[in-house]
UniProtKB/TrEMBL annotation:
InterPro entries: Sec1-like (IPR001619). This is Sec1. Residues 553-576, 683-765 are annotated as: Disordered. Residues 683-692 have a biased composition (Basic and acidic residues). Residues 700-723, 737-748 have a biased composition (Polar residues). GO terms for biological process: vesicle-mediated transport. Pfam families: Sec1 (PF00995). Residues 559-575 have a biased composition (Low complexity). Residues 752-765 have a biased composition (Basic residues).
Length: 765
């Protein structure tokens, strides 16, 4: 295997490739030596990260087997174990049974992050674990133990999550009943950011969102994350002499911005009409489970049920069109299918293909082109379904214009003020063909626009939704009430009270082609100002270090980086829907991603400033898209992360889950399950001895053959005892060799034991 991930994606700045380089090349391969056999022991925390950056097939070229630490494992006394696991009491108990039952000849540990929990540290140092001579020697007097900083799941080349199991992190931060989890989640967030800085080789300036005159309890969340991150990275610097990397004069110091979901409450409620966002928003199987289920024909003409995840960073079609408007994505895929058919020497009569369905029939029966055909079929089927659902739910036709006008403070696409938005809302809520969730979103967006409504107005609007179920009405009401926990109390005590004024950072672009895409997320505007060092320091203070005058890059040199792209100097040009530059929009979309895929020489020769942003409480697909767009427009390497990716449905569920009626047990949070498991009892079967199976009952013929083999063996022994044969060690059993090695290790261990015990202290010094 080469030093890079086995992938078509050669972008050296992709998080998948950077994490692969750190974990597989620098850490795992440093343990493996030629001629030895290794059993890789993992846990459920590392598994998704591991298989995101390397396939199991390729991993098995490095190690002999891969097993879970709490699985029922057979003894492999001729193998060494490599423990790639989180350092928890639960995992340490599993390791203890491995040593007691002599399952492996020796152990190597790559523990995920240095522990900070007092209980875990105490157990690690105790006589049960590293204070136990048997375990101490099992890990070569602790020399075989390393702590690695892994806490980042690379979702995309520029998008990361703290894990891939947290569906919605809003209740962790904003539900008062989950206050005991906040500290743990903050540590996980900081840990993922530390992992990010290590693999990118950065030591950033840290800025955080600090809302002025806050009304919600979690207003200091971003500052707490910034503080914990600074503590972790300072500690890492203290114990690692090679970090941070040497200063590069031509490269500006990176910046980390920490914000949270309250920065922009419009973004998670609006429907986004780009391909990726639309698919993950309105296609039910993707919206709920992240898996697309569809039917397609194979070459034999048979209908097959297929499941696919939209996470293939090697799919160039997906990379190039996922952030385009759904109409443009449809056109590009249609043209690619037509081109594939045209260039196929075995094609059937092209004149017979008069409809989209005809094209798909032809593609299904093409010989060869297997991978390309599968991917094009996936995208064509999914895009068509998105367009059909959009038509059924009247999203673009009815809802989108109302949404965008509310975000624009009542100004419509033509630049005129709409003074009848309340009447428009009543008409929309009265329609039977609008989804209940869509009606809920419209009420909330209207409430933001109005700066809040009195409770009786909310009740009246809820009646127009057409729901008679009291339980559902209660859920809807809680959504309105719970917005106060996110810093926007939309329910006014009295009609005489002034509207709630909340400072917003989003922008409206009226120069685009589509009235459904006028809204630009707040994060896009904030990041644009951040890169130009024009961000308000009251709202976004530095945590500790501030750049000196010499640290601020020359604005002219930055704007000249992309002089051919006028949008780099205009903060309002992110939409790119203007018909005059529509052709450039299509090509620039390809450039934005193809640059990183195929032109690595130019990107590596010019050191780019890196900008990192972390959004506690969930990120939206529009915010992810903005990071990719700004990376290209501003000539920076930008990355965005959070605990989860949320769509409008997730946000509404999150508003219900922050309610005080819901406790930790009701929410079924992954973090809560992990904390419980960390100190739980391990399975009883790990304490049991693995006995070899009883020999099978043999037939008389087999028994006779075995007797003949035994006679031959005795004759060979007599021959060897008379001096024939080669040296004594050539055909020794593996068990003899193993015993010899272990005894040698024991004798060496005793002579070094006094000297090396002090190494244990260094682990936590």
């Amino acid at each position: 295997m080469s030093s890079s991930k086995i992938t078509k994606n050669k972008d050296p700045n992709s998080l998948l490739n950077l994490q692969y380089e750190y974990l597989i090349v620098n850490k795992l391969k440093s343990i493996i030596t030629q001629g030895n056999l290794y059993n890789l022991i993992i846990d459920t925390k590392i598994e998704p990260i591991l298989y995101r950056i390397i396939s199991k097939q390729h991993l098995l070229r490095l190690v002999t087997s891969i097993e879970f630490i709490d699985a029922k494992r057979k003894p492999n006394k001729f193998m060494s174990a490599i423990y790639l696991v989180d350092l928890t009491i639960y995992n340490m108990k599993c390791i203890i049974t491995d040593v007691q039952k002599n399952r492996y000849k020796s152990g190597h540990a790559l523990f995920l992050a240095t522990p900070t929990d007092p209980k875990t540290i105490h157990f690690f140092k105790s006589n049960q674990f590293m204070g136990n001579e048997q375990i101490f020697n099992y890990f070569n007097q602790s020399d075989s133990i390393k702590f690695i900083q892994i806490g980042l799941y690379p979702e995309e080349s520029r998008v990361f999550l703290t894990d891939n199991k947290t569906k919605n992190s809003m209740p962790i931060y904003f539900n008062d009943n989950c206050s005991e989890l906040v500290r743990h989640q903050i540590k996980l967030a900081a840990r993922s950011l530390l992992n990010l800085m290590i693999i990118t080789g950065e030591f950033p300036f840290v800025r955080y969102y600090s809302p002025q005159h806050p009304t919600h309890r979690a207003s200091t969340l971003c500052e707490f994350i910034a503080e914990e991150f600074q503590r972790q990275i300072d500690e890492y610097c203290r114990v690692n002499d090679d970090y941070p990397p040497p200063y590069t004069p031509d490269k500006p110091r990176s910046i980390l911005l920490i914000t949270d979901r309250t920065l922009d409450l419009y973004a998670p409620l609006l429907h986004e009409f780009t391909y990726q966002a639309m698919a993950m928003d309105i296609v039910e199987s993707l919206e709920r489970n992240g898996v697309y289920k569809y039917s397609a024909e194979n070459e034999a003409g048979e209908k097959m049920d297929i499941e696919a995840k939209l996470d293939d960073e090697d799919d160039e079609d997906w990379i190039n069109i996922r952030h385009l408007h759904i109409i443009e994505s449809s056109e590009i895929i249609f043209n690619k299918i037509s081109e594939l058919i045209k260039n196929n020497p075995l094609m059937i009569d092209r004149s017979k293909a008069s409809t989209s369905s005809d094209l798909m029939y032809i593609v299904a029966h093409l010989k060869g082109f297997d991978e390309e055909r599968k991917k094009l079929t996936l995208h064509k089927t999914l895009i068509d379904e998105c367009l059909d659902l959009n038509a059924d739910r009247k999203l673009a036709e009815l809802a989108a214009d109302f949404e965008q006008t509310c975000c624009a403070q009542g100004v419509n696409f033509e630049g005129e003020r709409n003074r009848h938005l309340h009447d428009d809302l009543i008409v929309l809520l009265s329609r039977d063909d609008l989804h209940i969730n869509d009606k809920m979103r419209l009420i909330l967006i209207y409430a933001f626009y109005r700066g809040g409504l009195i409770e009786s107005d909310f009740k009246k609007l809820t009646k127009f939704i057409g729901v008679n179920d009291l339980q559902i009405i209660g859920l809807i009401s809680r959504c309105f009430v719970n917005l106060a926990k996110l810093g926007f109390p939309v329910i006014k005590p009295s009609i005489k009270d002034k509207p709630m004024t909340k400072h917003t950072f989003h922008r409206i672009n009226n120069e685009g082609t589509y009235n459904t895409s006028r809204f630009q997320p707040a994060l896009k505007n904030v990041l644009t100002n951040l890169t130009r060092f024009q961000l308000d320091e009251e709202w976004f203070p530095y945590f500790r270090d501030k750049p000196l005058v010499n640290d601020i890059p020359d604005k002219k040199s930055h704007s000249s980086t992309n002089s051919s792209n006028s949008s780099a100097t205009l903060p309002t040009s992110g939409s790119l829907r203007n018909p005059r530059i529509k052709a450039q929009w299509a090509s620039s979309a390809s450039l934005r991603h193809a640059n990183s895929l195929t032109s690595t020489r130019s990107s590596s020769s010019i050191p780019k400033q890196r900008i990192f942003v972390y959004v506690a409480g969930g990120i939206t697909y529009s915010e992810m898209r903005s990071v990719y767009e700004l990376s290209h427009e501003l000539g920076r390497d930008m990355y965005i992360g959070s605990e989860s990716i949320i769509n409008p449905r997730d946000f509404l569920i999150g508003l219900q889950d922050v309610d005080t009626n819901k406790g930790i047990r009701d929410l079924e949070l992954n973090l809560s399950r992990e904390l419980e498991k960390a100190e739980s009892e391990i399975p009883r079967y790990l304490y049991e001895d693995e006995r070899p199976p009883a020999p099978p009952v043999q037939s008389p013929a087999v028994t006779k053959m075995n007797q003949f083999d035994e006679q031959v063996r005795k004759q060979q022994q007599m021959s060897s005892s008379s001096g024939a044969g080669t040296g004594p060690g050539l055909y020794r059993k593996r068990s003899d060799l193993s015993t010899g090695n272990s005894s040698m290790a024991d004798s060496n261990g005793k002579s070094k034991e006094k000297k090396k015990t002090s190494r244990l202290k260094k682990l936590f010094s």
